[in-house]
Every structure is written in C-alpha cells, then in structure tokens.
C-alpha cells in the first residue's frame, strides 16, 4: 500500500490518523471475526462477522407499505393523487 502512495498522500494520511484513530473499529473487527470463527466451528451456523459486531449493529430496512407511501405523496406540493384518494 505504501509503495503506491506519494509523499504528500502519506503526510495527509498521517495527519488524518492523528485525529481519527481506528483502534475501536479494529478491535471490534478482530473480536467479531474471532467470535464468528468459534461459532462457525462449533455450530456450523449461517452467521457473518457483522452479526457479532458491537459498534455496527445490523439495521433492518423496513419497507413502507403502499398506503404509507401514498399518504406521504399526498403532502407533496403539486403532486397528483392516484387511487382511492384521487378526485
């Protein structure tokens, strides 16, 4: 990685690293991978290392229903209503 960097990029990287340490994220990644390895050896489970991460828990995307989307669209200025709410 360093062989592809210029001296200016290396200097900018060192300045950035002084303010933004990666210790917490690195430790979390190591322990998540270790936990995943132990569980996968013992249980043969379909889990990923992200399942064990403490800093980045899984965020479930909830898709809104069609009715919710239509209610949101009714509030848009100049929008045209379709379906049961239309005139």
From TrEMBL:
Residues 6-79 form the Minor tail T domain. It comes from Erwinia typographi. Pfam families: Phage_tail_T (PF06223). NCBIfam families: phage_lam_T. This is Minor tail T domain-containing protein.
């Amino acid at each position: 990685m360093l062989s592809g960097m210029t001296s200016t990029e290396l200097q900018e990287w060192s300045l950035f690293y002084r303010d933004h340490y990666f210790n917490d994220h690195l430790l979390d990644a190591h322990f998540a991978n270790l936990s995943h390895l132990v569980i996968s050896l013992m249980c043969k489970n379909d889990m990923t290392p992200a399942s064990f991460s403490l800093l980045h828990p899984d965020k479930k995307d909830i898709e809104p229903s069609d009715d919710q989307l239509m209610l949101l669209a009714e509030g848009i200025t100049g929008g045209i209503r379709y379906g049961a709410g239309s005139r």
